[in-house]
Amino acid sequence: MHSGEEIIQYKIRLKPEEIQGFVREADRCDFDVDIAYNSLMVDAKSILGVYGLDFSQVLTVYCHGYDEDFEECLKKYMV
User: Fold this and answer.
1) H helices within 1-79, ranges in order?
2) Which of 9, 32, 38, 73 could form a disulfide with 25 if both were Cys (CB 3.0 to 4.6 A apart)?
3) Domain 8-74 is classified in which CATH homologous superfamily?
4) pTM for the model
């Protein structure tokens, strides 16, 4: 992480059928996007990594940059 880099957090819920669209949107970002719950963190651009999460939990998305279109996409998943 670069000095002074801002990390923006979003709390979301995902359903298994929403994963492919979520990963596609995250992949369009030109910065790192991670998704986590408890102590497990995975790359949000990895469809296999995201499928390994527990979808009964509230998930936290960590964006290492800002993209207005991605934030708009996240609004449909926010809790």
Assistant:
1) 19-27, 47-51, 68-74
2) 73
3) HPr-like (3.30.1340.10)
4) 0.90
In a 10 Å sphere around its CB, with 0-12 CB exposed, 13-18 middle and 19+ buried, how is residue 60 labelled? middle
Residue 8 sits at φ, ψ, to 5 deg, of -105, 135
SS3 20: helix
Cβ contact 50:29 at 8 Å:
no
Please list the pLDDT of the chain residue by residue as tens digits (79 residues). Answer: 444 578 999 999 999 999 999 999 999 999 999 999 998 999 999 999 999 999 999 999 999 999 999 999 999 999 9
